[in-house]
Amino acid sequence: MSDNATPDLVFTGGTVVSHDGRRRNDVAIRDGRIIAVGEDLAVEGLPTVDATGLLVLPGLVDVHVHLREPGMTEKEDFASGTRAAAAGGVTTVVDMPNTSPPVATAERYRQKLDLVKEKAYVDFGLYGMLDHDNADEIAGMAELGAMGFKLFMGQTTGDNRCPNDAAIFRGLEAAAAAGLVVGVHAENDHLLRMFGDRLRSSGRTDPRAHLEGRPAFVEVEAVTRIITMATEAKAKLHIHHLSTADGLQRVRDLRAEGHRVSVEVLVGHLLLDDTAYDTYGNLIKLNPPIRPAADVNALWAGLGLGDIDVIATDHAPHTAAEQAEQDVWKAYGGFIGVETMLPLLLTAAAQGRLTVEDIVRLCSYTPARKWSMAAKGQVAPGFDADLVLVDPATQAVVDGTSMHSKHNVTPYEGWALTGAVVATYLRGGLIYEKGAIIGNPAGRQVRPARVPLATAGA
Ligand SMILES: [Zn+2]
């Protein structure tokens, strides 16, 4: 071996799981990158990590988290949220822009980057906002490394003004020119407000009113409209947290007509159905809402058919007091999830509902490719040594007191788990092991690789 090829660390004896298979292999790394995957890579006298009996996964890429900086740090901040990510085997997060103030200009984007970049325990991308009037800011945010742009067609935390269709189209064109993804919260805002007003004036304050105020066709309409517009604008479109059977069927129909779009579902939409409102009340208020079992089953069927591209968390922390709010109209939407995603999905894998390869594909490989993270999502030479060591047989229960967010209130409290994160490595450095965060924040900004347009010349 030449000196250049000498590893500084080798993981031995583990089973490397990729998006399309698994194989017993060593993984050799040097300077934070994987240099070889194969048999018998250990070099005498050099450090090794014994991964015998463990699965070795590429670090998860969660493209949907709200770490609440700036402006809402009583709920979460970049340090606490990325510690939770590290403990959950998530080595890259994409943070949403609906903060206070929202990240809707290049100036705000730069300020946010300065604010968070020294605090991150895992690598991070930052979304900008596609606002009601900021198409002129898209290129500037792209220049600063924006991972993409979030479009709220329906209102959510932060009460941002939803853009009208003309503003959406101009934003889609600007994002397409920058070659970046537009990620959409697809619900029709006018209909949401009308149904909400109706239920409120009828005197309803119970958790289920939130579900009744967001019927499936509100999602179907928004999905149809945004896919139609994105195709016309040649934008790379991603639907965040698709939640209904009808919405998924509309995506299938539009794909059959030639439209291209990726689809995400949330862990919460897969593991909870509307019977859970009786147990958890407003803790599981979510936008879009937790749905009836027929929708949940359709999402699982969609996963099995390959119609769904990404699983994400929508990690959306609030304070413990906020999560206890009894009036559904005063309660916030969302709950934490970045630390429990992998153990919960490993548990689903142990139950035969999907495979660990599926988890790698949906939570690491495909997100890394869709968002052009050139060095993420695979355990292969040239990729970042973001590795998660998993024991698929460990029996545990979800225990908020051992978790790392600021407020560890979770509907999954006490749920039985099969499978656990043993250790997490970020670019070759150990950042989490057996319950403990290791070392100082070492996360870096991930910028999408610039994919040159065919027409752009040399
Ligand atoms: Zn969200």
TrEMBL record:
<dbReference type="Pfam" id="PF01979">
    <property type="entry name" value="Amidohydro_1"/>
</dbReference>
<dbReference type="GO" id="GO:0000256">
    <property type="term" value="P:allantoin catabolic process"/>
</dbReference>
<dbReference type="InterPro" id="IPR032466">
    <property type="entry name" value="Metal_Hydrolase"/>
</dbReference>
<dbReference type="InterPro" id="IPR017593">
    <property type="entry name" value="Allantoinase"/>
</dbReference>
<dbReference type="GO" id="GO:0050897">
    <property type="term" value="F:cobalt ion binding"/>
</dbReference>
<keyword id="KW-0479">Metal-binding</keyword>
<dbReference type="InterPro" id="IPR006680">
    <property type="entry name" value="Amidohydro-rel"/>
</dbReference>
<comment type="subunit">
    <text>Homotetramer.</text>
</comment>
<feature type="domain" description="Amidohydrolase-related">
    <location>
        <begin position="55"/>
        <end position="428"/>
    </location>
</feature>
<dbReference type="GO" id="GO:0005737">
    <property type="term" value="C:cytoplasm"/>
</dbReference>
<comment type="similarity">
    <text>Belongs to the metallo-dependent hydrolases superfamily. Hydantoinase/dihydropyrimidinase family.</text>
</comment>
<dbReference type="InterPro" id="IPR011059">
    <property type="entry name" value="Metal-dep_hydrolase_composite"/>
</dbReference>
<comment type="function">
    <text>Catalyzes the reversible cyclization of carbamoyl aspartate to dihydroorotate.</text>
</comment>
<dbReference type="GO" id="GO:0008270">
    <property type="term" value="F:zinc ion binding"/>
</dbReference>
<protein>
    <recommendedName>
        <fullName>allantoinase</fullName>
        <ecNumber>3.5.2.5</ecNumber>
    </recommendedName>
</protein>
<dbReference type="InterPro" id="IPR050138">
    <property type="entry name" value="DHOase/Allantoinase_Hydrolase"/>
</dbReference>
<keyword id="KW-0862">Zinc</keyword>
<dbReference type="InterPro" id="IPR002195">
    <property type="entry name" value="Dihydroorotase_CS"/>
</dbReference>
<dbReference type="GO" id="GO:0006145">
    <property type="term" value="P:purine nucleobase catabolic process"/>
</dbReference>
<comment type="similarity">
    <text>Belongs to the metallo-dependent hydrolases superfamily. DHOase family. Class I DHOase subfamily.</text>
</comment>
<keyword id="KW-0378">Hydrolase</keyword>
<dbReference type="GO" id="GO:0004038">
    <property type="term" value="F:allantoinase activity"/>
</dbReference>
<comment type="pathway">
    <text>Nitrogen metabolism; (S)-allantoin degradation; allantoate from (S)-allantoin: step 1/1.</text>
</comment>
